[in-house]
Amino acid sequence: MSDIHILTGNGQKWTIVFHFAVPDQNNNIGVNYRTALVNSRLGGTSMMAEGTEAGQIATAELALIAADEIYEHSEQFLAESGATNNTEMLAAAQALYVSRETTVLTALQKRLRYFGYAGSAT
Questions:
Q1: Cα–Cα distance between 14 and 22 in angstroms, integer?
Q2: What is the pLDDT of residues 73-109, one digit of tens each?
Q3: For 57-70, how does the pLDDT look when each residue is reduced to its tens digit (9 = 90+)?
Q4: Residue 54 structural domain
Q5: Is residue 117 assigned to a domain?
Q6: For residue 78, is it within any domain?
Q7: Domains in the chain: how many in total?
């Protein structure tokens, strides 16, 4: 399984897809973040086509996304800004993955901190 997928682009901006492992932890209400992602519809799906070809996601990896053990994040990536060859461009993609992993997962945990609370005012 791959953590980084570079898809389409126009020579400057490329669509890049990251797959981050979702911690098996509970939110403030006691709901597991993986369950919260699925039930909130913030996760559980992939923008990639299923298959074994380039630009596709393997069935096993898609199953992990559906179970929200992996969260898929996509964004536009200036892959060639400052890069002079493929090695530098791919290294920049890897560095972006590392910088986004904590940021994206922390933002999700904040959004889902109280997900699942049900109660009444009395």
A1: 25
A2: 999 988 665 556 778 888 888 999 999 999 999 999 9
A3: 999 999 999 998 99
A4: 4-111
A5: no
A6: yes
A7: 1
